[in-house]
Amino acid sequence: MFKDRFLRKFLFHCINNYKRSLGTGNLLYKILTIRILVFSKNPDENKRAIHKIMSAYLKSTEDQTQLEKEIQATDNLINDKVYELYARASCMSGSHNSFKR
C-alpha cells in the first residue's frame, strides 16, 4: 500500500476520471495502461509537483465539504423558522388546519 497520501489520491483521481472503458480482462494490466500526467522528467520534482497540486486540491474539497455542511445546517434552520412562523400564523388566524413538517 502507498504510504504517500498525496500520490495515492493523485493516482486514484487519475484512474477514477479515466474516460474510456477499461473493458474486460486483466484489470491490473488495464489500469497500468492509463496515462498518468507527468509534470517533470525528474522523479523528485514530479513528486513535489504532485504534492503541491494534491495538497491544494484536497484542501479545497475539504473546504467544500465543510461549506456544504454549513449550508445544509443554515437551510434546516430557515426551514424550521418558516414552519414555526407558519404555525403561529395559522393559530392567529383561527385556522384549524395544521401544517406539519
At a glance:
With 101 residues, the protein is mostly helical. It has helices spanning 5-16, 27-32, 43-93.
List strands and helices in order, with pairings.
Layout: H1 5-16, H2 27-32, H3 43-93
Structural class: mainly alpha
Helix coverage percent:
55-70%
First-residue to last-residue Cα separation: 48 Å
Low-confidence region ranges:
none
Radius of gyration: 25 Å
The counted number of beta strands is: 0
Average pLDDT works out at 85
- What is the makeup of the main sheet? none
Q: Rough shape? A: elongated
What percent strand? under 5%
Q: If helices are DSSP runs of H or I spanning 4 or more residues, what is the number of helices?
A: 3
- Integer count of domains: 1
Order of helices and strands: HHH
Keywords:
single chain, mainly alpha
How would you describe the overall organization of this protein?
The protein has 101 residues and is an all-alpha fold. Helices cover 68% and strands 0% of the residues. It has one domain (5-93). The longest helix is centred in the last third of the chain and has 51 residues, at 43-93. The two termini are 48 Å apart. 2% of the residues are buried. The model has no long low-confidence stretch (mean pLDDT 85).
